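Appendix B. Chain record.
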Amino acid sequence: MTTGSAAGVGRERSLPDRARAPATAGLGGADPATAGLATAESAGAESAAVQLVAAAVGGDRRALARLLSAVENTPRWWPEISAALAGHVGGAQTVGLTGAPGVGKSTTVTALVRAYRRAGRRVGVLAVDPSSPYSGGALLGDRVRMSEHAGDPGVFIRSLASRGRLGGLAAATAQALRVLDAAGFDVVIVETVGVGQAEIDIAALADTTCVLLAPGAGDDVQAAKAGLLEVADVLVVNKADRPGAARTVADLTALTRMRAGARRPAVVRVAATLGEGIDELVARIAAHRRELAATGELDRRRLARAADEIRGLALTALRDLLAAPPHDARLAELAHQVLAGAADPWSAAECLLGDILTAQPAPSR
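Structure tokens predicted for this chain:
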């Protein structure tokens, strides 16, 4: 497999022949995370993670499915998995698709996969489904709608349950993206759950963010508001065979022209169920990719993405420290002082952070 820096994103990459054999695991891992990892606690999670990563990178689709299950269900193994993936990532082009419920995201993803496969590119898909607030489960309907690609060895589709996380993605999306990247997929498409105006996490994860809209849903008015549409690299008006599509395209085009000095996304009209406009959408995504590479913006975006991931992991570690002894007791003590008026929240926070920093060992050199 060929890997490289961001400057080499999107080139063709090859995998061993066994990666090309049909496998039922291609629909996202019916195997639980514990499959192949039952002895991880006794043998060591690190060795199990390293073995799974090596197998997945080598083209074993069942190992890839199990690795994604481990990423989704066993966060404590993320450090070992992440370390094993280092050196294999950076070669995939990442395309994000987002939009309100019902605009046709899954249908558009299916059409995009079909177009990329005609061009001979291997495609990974991460489809984030909403979770039930009662059972915690997910219907995984996105994967059902993409079933036509189930038997294609050049496609790997994985559903991720949002599990209550806001922003349109699942907690494990970034790690799952790294896994598919390391496994040698040329393009990784990330489909969010149905989102509103402020759920823009996908923009920090994807090289190119496509925001889907549908005519007749008031999107021409919503476009004037800050939020989701402002992070779009490509605005996609789906269901273009319906009345009002031309008006929506015209309004969005006029709006983008008014954004002096700001990013001006292309506006593409498609009818995904009919396959119309998909080739133009693929071309627009490719043109945006070339523009990013030519201006250095691709490297800047990926650098910002890495910083965001580090920051998020650091904040998670800090929250874990605050919830564990002895800092949980110290937090409760400071909270009582604030409640009694003996301290203010700012000074209490500084005191708590000082305690945490003092308690941590100096980094090894």
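Further analysis of this model is presented in Appendix C.
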